[in-house]
Amino acid sequence: MSLVKNRRGTAIVETDHGILLVETRKGMILLPGGGAKKREPRFEAAVRELREETGLLAFSALSLFEHISYSNAHRVVWIVASGEPRPYDDAVALHYCTPETVKNFKTASPATREILNRFWEYQKEHPQLFTMWRIPNSGISS
Fold first, then answer.
1. For the domain 6-133, what is the CATH code?
2. Which segment of the chain is annotated as a signal peptide (predicted)?
3. Spacing of C-alpha 42 from chain mean position
4. CA nearest 133: which of 66, 82, 62, 65?
5. Closest Cα partner for 82 from 13, 11, 10?
6. What is the pTM of this model?
7. Are 121 and 113 in contact (CB under 8 A)?
């Protein structure tokens, strides 16, 4: 018997302060994102949920990899966005994470930690990809 995983779009947004994280009402720290609606691609769900949870508007996005966690099948999307991030919808606070500070987020979900570590490794392996897609002064203010 196979377990059916929830389809989730997960956004990675880099800022000058680190990767943007959201805190839920239950105190969990997660990457922005959420469940894909019926027939909605997970890529689109990542872009939509980022806007709903932080108010940021994506103007460039790159699908990176799939990550299977305990309960979700994540489509991880690297997003360059504009705007001033604020917590909306399911998010009650925003945080910023770097490879050096990830251990400080005690309530980060295991999937969030795994995805962040995979992303940083992926970024090391493919630096030209991120240089090519990065837009200077993306407009995110925090």
1. 3.90.79.10
2. none
3. 12
4. 62
5. 13
6. 0.90
7. no
